[in-house]
Amino acid sequence: MADKPIYKVIFYNQSQVYEVYARAIYQSDMYGFIEVEEFVFGERTQVIVDPGEEKLKSEFANVSRSYIPMQAIIRIDEVEKEGEVKVTELKSSDKVAHFPFSVPSTPPKGSED
């Protein structure tokens, strides 16, 4: 393994599945979020340009830290080296189970503390 680990983060974002690589991931002080920092994009020496990778590079170009809701996270893996970043479009026929948002419970009316 490298001195500083690399993580592959797969998450939902507006009917798309993003697969990105980062060097720092931790639970945020903001309740219900994961913080992702130090995004890693492979340096390609080929002339072929992947539009998905270019989209993600431009989307995260000026981002120093991203807060991703926990319910949007599909998977986080520690990997040996970065791979190809991807954006996959979800089709209407794809079956995706979403976690429900937590709703704070309210005390019943008439109860006093």
Count of individual domains: 1
Q: For the record, give the distance between the C-alpha atoms at the N and C termini, rounded to a whole number.
A: 54 Å
Poorly predicted residue ranges? none
Which percent bin holds the helix content?
under 10%
What value does the average pLDDT take? Answer: 77
The CATH class turns out to be Mainly Beta
Topology-level CATH name: SH3 type barrels
**What is the overall shape?**
globular
Largest sheet: 6 strands, antiparallel
Query: Approximately what portion of the residues adopt beta-strand conformation?
Result: 35-45%
- CATH architecture, by name, is Roll
SSE string, helices as H and strands as E: EEEHEEE
**Cα gyration radius (Å):** 18 Å
Instruction: Provide a count of the helices.
Output: 1
Strand element count = 6
Q: Which structural class fits the helix and strand makeup?
A: mainly beta
